[in-house]
Write a structure and sequence with these properties.
Length: 198
Amino acid sequence: MFRNFSSFFVKKKDKDGKEKPSNFENLVVIVILGVIILIAASFLSKSDDAKDAMNDISTITASEESGLKYTPLNGHEIISDLENRLSELLSKVEGAGQVDVMIFADSSSEHVPAYNNEQNTRSDEGASGKSSEIRETRELALSGDDTPVILKVNVPQIKGVVVVAQGADDILIREQLNNAVCTLLGIPEHRVQIMKHK
């Protein structure tokens, strides 16, 4: 039994007399490659998470189970919803206390509708040579009740954020709140102001 175990670590020679890597060396290489793949995958998913968070906000849809009809939100509704969600989340930070959030943004959101595109090509050969004609038609895609199909809603551009928190007199709490807002909204630090609640 000990011989089988020790052979796991010993290099073997092939028919030509060249040494082959041991089973242990092969296992180590496989484990290292696995770790590298996991680390690369986590970095790729983190960069997509921030984009997905904003896309989730911009394409808020009603639940099919509730039977509600989807109506695209306007810019004010999106910002108001975002303020409420941020206030709720930031108030859960230990030591932050009551938190109020105000977001200053462009007031308009952009609804991007879907289009049905059709392209027709016609070629003619005549005495004067070849001629071809390409005709392209583009129609607004409509749902069953004749309302346009909306592909996505682009959220208003965020210009600045003010956070008023009871625990903002503590510099650590202030930094945590600032980092959270910057990360969640994808905006630079100079666009966020944290203030003490009275």
